[in-house]
Amino acid sequence: MRVLLVEDDAMIGDSVKLALRQEGFAVDWVQDGEAGLAAATPTGGSGGGRWGVL
Fold first, then answer.
1. 50 is a domain residue
2. Which residue has the higher pLDDT, 43 or 2?
3. In a domain, 51, yes or no
4. What are the φ and ψ backbone dihedral angles of 17, each rounded to 5 degrees?
5. DSSP string computed for 1-54
6. Each residue's pLDDT tens digit, 8-37
7. Do 51 and 2 meet the contact criterion of CB atoms below 8 Å apart?
């Protein structure tokens, strides 16, 4: 399953990304809300609808 992680804090983002990957998830991490919204919407980014978890 692919997860979109939106987190602006680098330390938290790295930790969450690592933990999710260790559990077998594919993780796409963006570091601000605008980038997260763009990535999550079909018209705003390259992969709207491709994540199992947002």
1. no
2. 2
3. no
4. -60, -45
5. -EEEEE-S-HHHHHHHHHHHHHTT-EEEEESSHHHHHHHHSTTTSS-TT--SB-
6. 999 999 999 999 999 999 999 999 999 988
7. yes
Handedness of CA 12, 17, 23, 25 (dihedral sign): positive
48: in domain:
no
Domain of residue 13 covers 2-40
Please report which confidence band the pLDDT of residue 39 belongs to, taking 50, 70 and 90 as the band edges.
Answer: confident
> What CA–CA distance (Å, rounded) separates 6 from 24?
18
CB 7 within 8 A of CB 29: yes
How many domains in the chain? 1
Residue 52 lies in a domain: no
In the structure encoding, which two tokens stand for residue 37, read together?
A: 């919204």
